[in-house]
Amino acid sequence: MAHIADRMGDSAFGRLLRYHDEIESTNIEAKSIADAGAPEGTVVIAECQTAGRGRLGRRWVSPAGKGLLFSVLLRPSLPMGEAHLLTLVAATAAAQAIETQTGVSPDIKWPNDLFIGDKKVGGILTEVAGEQDEVDWVIVGIGLNVNTEYSELPVALRRTATSLKMVTGEPVDRSDLLAAILLSLEAHYRQAATDGFDETLSAFRARDYLLRRSVSVETREGPVVGKASGIDERGALLVELPHRQMRRFHSGDVSLHD
Ligand code: BTN
Q1: pTM of structure
Q2: Whose CA is nearest to atom 9 of ligand 1?
Q3: What residues flank ligand 1, with Cβ below 6 Å?
Q4: How confident is the model over 1-14, as pLDDT tens digits?
Q5: Most buried of the four, 30, 188, 231, 253, by CB within 10 Å?
Q6: In this structure, how many other beta carbons lie within 10 angstroms of the beta carbon of residue 221?
Q7: Contact at 8 Å (CB) between 81 and 133?
């Protein structure tokens, strides 16, 4: 995997690749090199993380050498209020690349989870620094269960998680998949920079795992229950409440509500 840069052609993403056998978290390392001035497109990748991080303070656990664990440093010209859209960009890019490489078409559970059927196969943790009117850097951290076996999943996750190999029955070449994700991410990112996010959001909507399902969104005032009704033009989740009232969520923890 350390030789991935050779496969990246003219693209900027992945040209600078920092490979680690073991690291605390690729996001933590990427933030530190971002603060030290590393250029856009630098990728930090690891075979194993000792403190892999997920959204909302959760952990990301993956056996060594079986998944893809990497973080991409971006320096977009965006106000802080739009940086969250890059999570949707990364989820869409990763889902499309997985489909091209494996034939399996993941859905996206807003805003950042990749699902195959009703099981999670990957997740994205986006972290941002900068001023309100201009982002300094964005770290897009992507974790995917690629060749993980059922018995290697943490026991607590075996009912809710899967891997690409568990779904296809075949091992997946992680270098090919990484190269495909980086190329797809760069293409979506450049397009968003020139034309805005509309096209990526359309592609996201075509994979919307939550659409028309009954959901519960955790908020400071407690759970809000309603019907997921798509994603608006700013990437917010739309939830229809009783009496057809529509509410928008720009962030939050969403679960299916039985
Ligand atoms: C989530 O599902 O909540 C997001 C998981 C993101 C995990 C990836 S693994 C690579 C990168 N480094 C981290 O510490 N986290 C992200």
Answers
A1: 0.96
A2: 143
A3: 25-27, 49, 52-55, 58, 60, 69-71, 112-113, 123-125, 141-143
A4: 756 767 777 788 98
A5: 30
A6: 6
A7: no
